[in-house]
Amino acid sequence: MKCWMVVAAAMLSTSVALAEESPGSQPTPMPRGPRTPLRLQVLVTRQQGEKKISSRPYTLQLYSGDQQGATVFVGNQVPLRFSDKGVQTILFKDVGTKLRCLAAPSEGGRYEVSLKYEDSFLAPAQGSGGRVSEDDLPVWRMLNGEIRAYVRDGETTTLSSTVDPVTGDVVKAEMTFTVIK
């Protein structure tokens, strides 16, 4: 019986994950061109005032003009339990960092880079003593964005810099673009 429950939960989580991948969740396709190897580093930092709380780099290697681009997910799948008319169901939701990137050569030695990013984590519920537990219904915290930038080899650009409305933390995402020679 437990085996069937695990299989059913896995099938349900797969269908939910597929449903989350809507057509709009993919970066805009890039035109084909010469396939040049590229490296993209995304740095996500979080600060409280002048104090840096976290700094997490993510590096992707991709080829310009490649319609598949590059995708990375670093994180966990967190079970979410809910009940509908007495029937208990478990869904799994990704928590962590997702990056999807495409690049194509552009004019003047630049590259057109299309990047979608999502950085999410569970934060403790108010009054939980700083612990995340399934009984306290944690808060889902997220930063996400989509950008199309025109960059040169070695250039660093800020994707976003924003203030978390709940904590007041400054959350910044930067991208460094490199042509691999």
Commentary on this structure:
It is a single chain. With 181 residues, this protein is mainly β. The chain has one domain (30-77, 94-179). Helix content is 10%, strand content 57%. The chain has 1 helix and 8 strands.
Summarize it.
Helices cover 10% and strands 57% of the residues.
Could you say how many structural domains there are in total?
A: 1
Structural class: mainly beta
Intertermini distance = 56 Å
Mean pLDDT figure: 79
Strand order of the largest sheet: 2-1-8-7
Instruction: Tell me the β content.
Output: over 45%
Radius of gyration: 19 Å
Proportion of residues in helical segments = 10-25%
From the spread of the alpha carbons, the general shape counts as globular
Number of strands: 8
The largest sheet, given as strand count, sense and whether it forms a barrel, is:
4 strands, antiparallel
Number of helices: 1
Low-confidence stretches: 1-24
Q: What series of H and E elements makes up the topology? A: HEEEEEEEE
